[in-house]
Amino acid sequence: MSISAKDVMKLREATGAGMMDCKKALTEADGDMEAAIEILRKKGQKVSEKRAERDANEGLIFTKLSDDNKRASAVELNCETDFVARNEDFQDQAKAFLDAAFAGKINSVDELLKEEVDGLTIEKHLESMVGKIGEKIEINRVVYVDSDGTLIDYIHPGNQLAVIVEFDGNLTDDQVGKDVAMQIAAMNPLAVTRDGVDASVIDKELEIAKEQLINEGKPEEIAEKAAKGKLRRFYEERVLLEQKFVKDNGITVKEFLEQNNAPLVTSFHRLQLGEA
């Protein structure tokens, strides 16, 4: 039977075994995860199991932007220690994986694992890195964006926070774009506009605000109306175009763009090390 890269990664997460060992075990077990774990244990994976218990919370994020600002990629490569993340070989591998994602227009970890770099799949490169370094190493996220407008990327010093932001049209001043990307990095908005905020999040915020007001002694009818006022403040804090611009709190991000004759933002990706 065919064994997917996703299942291989899942087994690797559960056991810490090498990718090829996981694939062989899954093949032998006809895809049964529990049976594959038993096979690995019978083959002496005790040391590796201890590795799987550790978290790969360190690492680096890199971005790549095309010269015409129409295409962009980001890759997050994780490891267990900052010492490994600072290693030049680790950084070179991360950049090679990024180049592969960019060239292949890849937007998922499963797809990227199948791509080849220097004659080997990235899946095999990761297995080799785990064996050589002795740490849990994994690709956490891959982002690929193409646009008819303008893309701007931003990497916060240290390569642990990255932003790709898309503008609805031609952006003549890159610094305006960088300022908005830095805004997203600093203020962590949920969406570009109110329409982009998930309905379940809004319902939860309304419920919390209403309960707070009722606990303060407000009648339910008044609390319900007042909760909507609190929701407006929530939008001002978590919706990008309504946020106060970090470099000038007297205006919103939308007003900043309008004042600079810049197109509005249509989408963004914010990657912070270790987040899902």
From TrEMBL:
InterPro entries: EF-Ts_dimer_sf (IPR036402), Transl_elong_EFTs/EF1B (IPR001816), Transl_elong_EFTs/EF1B_dimer (IPR014039), Transl_elong_Ts_CS (IPR018101), UBA-like_sf (IPR009060). Keywords: Cytoplasm, Elongation factor, Protein biosynthesis. Residues 73-275 form the Translation elongation factor EFTs/EF1B dimerisation domain. Residues 81-84 are annotated as: Involved in Mg(2+) ion dislocation from EF-Tu. Its main location: cytoplasm. It comes from the Bacteria. Belongs to the EF-Ts family. This is Elongation factor Ts. The gene is tsf.
